[in-house]
Amino acid sequence: MARLDIVFAFITLLVLSGPAQAQSEGAVDPNTGAEKEAEQQASGPMTLERLDAMIRRVDEGAERQGNVWQFKVEGVSVSVITDPNADRMRILAGVIEVDKLQPDSLMRLLQANFDTALDARYAIAQNILWGTFIHPLGALDDAEFLSGLGQAVNLVFTFGTSYSSGLFSFGGGDSNAILRRELIDRLLEDGQPT
C-alpha cells in the first residue's frame, strides 16, 4: 500500500504543476436533459467550495491542495482531482498494483466495465489499477458526485468477487454481481447538506 501513497502524491504533483488539458470538442454528456438542466439552474454549476464542503461531510480529515483532495471512505484512500479550466472532475481509488494482477483478471475487468462497473470504471495508470469516476465538473450535482464516489470505492471492495460499482447491473453482460448499494445510499445521506 505504500506504493499507492506514492502514486497519489505523484498524481497530486502532476495535476498541480501540469497545464490544463484542452476540453474535447464535440464531447457529449449523455446525462443532460430537461430535468438535469432545471436542477443545474436551481443549484448552479458545481463549485470547488461546494465540492470541498461535500468531501468534508464524508471525511472531516480530508486534505486539500488547490484542486486536489485526498481523504478516506471506509478505509479506502481516495483522491478527487478537478480542472475547472477543462471542466473535469475525476475520482481515483487505488485497487492493486498491476504486476500483482492475474492475467485472467484483465478479461474480468473489461467484462465488469461493460455491465457491473456502470458509471465508474476500472482503469490502469502509473502501474496501478484504479476504480475511477470521471464527470464534467460544472454539470456535476451533489447526488452524482456522492454516487460516483461510492461506485469508485465499491470497485475497490468488490475487486476479485463481483467487480460491481454497487449501483445496478446491465443485464446484457457476463457478470452476475452482488450489488453493494448500501455504501452509495449512506454517502448520499451523509454527504448532503443538512
Question: Order of helices and strands, N to C?
Answer: HHHEEEEHEEHH
Give the CATH level 1 class.
Alpha Beta
Number of discrete helical segments: 6
The low-pLDDT segments are 9-32, 36-41
End-to-end Cα distance, whole Å, is 35 Å
Secondary structure category: alpha+beta
Q: Work out the count of structural domains.
A: 1
Total beta strands: 6
> Given the C-alpha coordinates, what overall shape results?
globular
Question: What spatial order of strands do you see in the largest sheet?
Answer: 1-2-3-4-6-5
- Helical percentage: 25-40%
The percentage of residues in β strands lies in 15-25%
Radius of gyration: 16 Å
CATH architecture: 2-Layer Sandwich
